[in-house]
Amino acid sequence: MTCSASDSPLLFDLPVAPDFSEERRLLARGRFHIAGIDEAGRGPLAGPVVAAAVVLDAGDLPDGLDDSKRLKAAKREALYEVILAKAVTISVASLSARSIDTSDIRKAALEAMRRALVGLTLKPCHALIDGRDVPPGLSCPGSALIKGDQRSISIAAASIVAKVTRDRMMIRAGIAHPPYGLEIHAGYGTARHRAAIESDGPVPGIHRYTFSPIKGRFSA
Q1: What is this structure's pTM?
Q2: Residue 219 pLDDT
Q3: Is 39 annotated as a binding residue?
Q4: In the predicted structure, residue 11 carries a pLDDT above the cut 70
């Protein structure tokens, strides 16, 4: 019996961690100042969506960068400080829960990414964006990379900056609105969070009224 060849990648072909190869290909084509862009906060019931754009120094790349979801909080915090110290330029932008409700989360995330890129102190030659979509209206050419935060360390850096920034925002929101535990779950739909919404109702400006189980049951 003959066996057909598989088109699935072999285990040893899968990247162990993101690297700088995507950026090097662009640098070889004369595209200097490559920005990595990623966002945090698409899925929660509360809080903003936050995007970060990061241009790393090709001659002084931070060690240990990875998709923020694969890192523990303490490691993210430590890498956040390293990225801030070593990056050429960093920009962060966010869209509030109200802005998400007036549009939709996909459009809001893409707009936050666009704003983050615009906020950089220099204009990059190219942007690498995590996901399937290139945000409309970018100030430079861009490429979307599926699982980009696990392939490109520039995107991984942006992932960490966006995640840490948003988590800190949600800690402050949790202090202001204690019943919901926002500082613990960052606005995701945990049992405690859903129970607090049922008992106390959602908070205008904090909760996303177009997300279930809030949608159609409460008015802002």
Answers
A1: 0.92
A2: 83
A3: yes
A4: no
Q: How many residues does the chain have?
A: 220
Beta strand pairing call for 142-145 and 34-40: unpaired
The answer on pLDDT for 63 being more than 80 is yes
Query: Which residues, including other chains, have CB under 8 Å from residue 129's CB and lie 6 or more apart?
Result: 37, 38, 113, 135, 142, 143, 144, 145, 148, 155
> Nearest CA to 108 among 201, 44, 34, 174?
44
Which distant-in-sequence residues (6+ apart) come within 8 Å of 165 by Cβ?
A: 40, 50, 52, 92, 94
Average pLDDT over residues 139-156: 97
Q: List the structure tokens of 144.
A: 């979307």
Average pLDDT over residues 93-105: 97
Q: Give the tokens for residue 212.
A: 């279930």
Q: Which one-letter amino acid corresponds to residue 220?
A: A
Q: Is 130 annotated as a binding residue?
A: yes
First to last CA, the chain: 65
Residue 49 β-bridge partners:
95
Cα-based angle 132, 38, 156 (whole degrees, multiple of 5): 110
Q: Is 38 annotated as a binding residue?
A: yes
> What mean pLDDT is predicted for residues 91-106?
97
Angle value at C-alpha 24, between 20 and 30, nearest 5 degrees: 150
